[in-house]
């Protein structure tokens, strides 16, 4: 498994601090993560890109995790869970949000958090 971080130069405290104005930055970070994984030969269907959501993070500076799958341990799988959510939700209860979920939530005027993200 590959584990890379994409870190913006401008300080942004966390994924919870993001608003609609940050969507271009997130798309650039996503592109950078995919390019890095491409260079390592990680297949597109074997990737996970996303953010930990406070208080379940250890670094208070926005950083995108770019992973090549599969995870080699149950601990890693549990540390980066994906929760699709139910009707009217872009994300369910989880301390990790995939980049596509984060962009979708922000495009619809929502805020990213651990609890399910409802659409306004």
Describe the structure.
26% of the residues are buried. This protein has a four-stranded antiparallel beta sheet with strand order 1-3-2-5. Strands 4-6 form a two-stranded antiparallel sheet. It has helices at 23-39, 74-79, 99-107, and strands at 3-6, 47-52, 64-68, 89-91, 96-98, 117-118. The protein has 120 residues and is of the alpha+beta class. The longest helix has 17 residues, at 23-39. It has three helices and six strands.
SSE-based structural type: alpha+beta
Mean pLDDT: 91
Quantity of strands, as a count: 6
Terminal CA distance: 37 Å
Please summarize the sheet with the most strands: 4 strands, antiparallel
Which consecutive residue ranges, at least 5 long each, have pLDDT under 50? none
Whole-angstrom Rg = 14 Å
Spatial ordering of strands, largest sheet: 1-3-2-5
**Helical segment count:** 3
In N-to-C order, the SSE pattern is EHEEHEEHE
The proportion of residues in beta strands is: 15-25%
- Fraction of residues in helices? 25-40%
Shape: globular
Keywords:
120 residues; two-stranded antiparallel sheet; 3 helices; 6 strands
């Amino acid at each position: 498994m590959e584990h890379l971080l994409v870190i913006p130069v401008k300080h942004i405290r966390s994924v919870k601090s993001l608003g609609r104005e940050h969507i271009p930055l997130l798309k650039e970070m996503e592109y950078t993560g995919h390019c890095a994984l491409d260079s390592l030969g990680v297949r597109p269907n074997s990737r996970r890109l996303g953010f930990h959501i406070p208080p379940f993070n250890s670094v208070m500076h926005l950083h995108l995790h770019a992973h090549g799958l599969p995870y080699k341990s149950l601990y890693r799988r549990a540390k980066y869970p994906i929760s699709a959510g139910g009707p009217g939700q872009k994300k369910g209860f989880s301390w990790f949000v995939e980049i596509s979920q984060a962009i979708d939530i922000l495009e619809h005027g929502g805020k990213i958090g651990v609890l399910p993200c409802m659409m306004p």
